[in-house]
Design brief:
With 93 residues, this protein is α+β, with helices and mostly antiparallel strands. It is 24% helix and 13% strand. The protein has 4 helices and 4 strands, in the order αβαβββαα. The longest helix is centred in the middle third of the chain and has 9 residues. The chain is elongated, with a radius of gyration of 15 Å.
Length: 93
């Protein structure tokens, strides 16, 4: 039996990396988080650190799958990461 104070854990849907479709709403993007919130989902996200110590939301270690760029998140500065786009959309890291 679930204790009452933890019931929200089974009563709340959680959108893994936001509520996305990876066509026009990429995972771990602001639109994916807005979509999750508008549909009453909790949000799970992945956080990493850029080479200059800025926390960013991004799942993979490699930038290739989501941006087409070579390299790792931890090797790029925040400014370099902000220049990339997620899956050819206007969404940024």
């Amino acid at each position: 039996m679930i204790r009452q104070e933890y019931k929200w854990l089974t009563d709340t849907f959680v959108a893994h990396r936001g509520l996305f479709n990876n066509v026009d709403i990429p995972e771990n993007s602001i639109p994916a988080f807005v979509e999750a919130r508008e549909n009453n989902f909790g949000i799970e996200m992945d956080v990493q650190m850029s080479s200059d110590g800025v926390l960013v939301v991004f799942h993979d270690d490699s930038l290739k799958r989501m941006t087409g760029a070579d390299g790792l998140v931890c090797e790029k500065t925040f400014e370099e990461l902000r220049q990339l786009r997620l899956l050819d959309t206007d969404c940024q890291i």
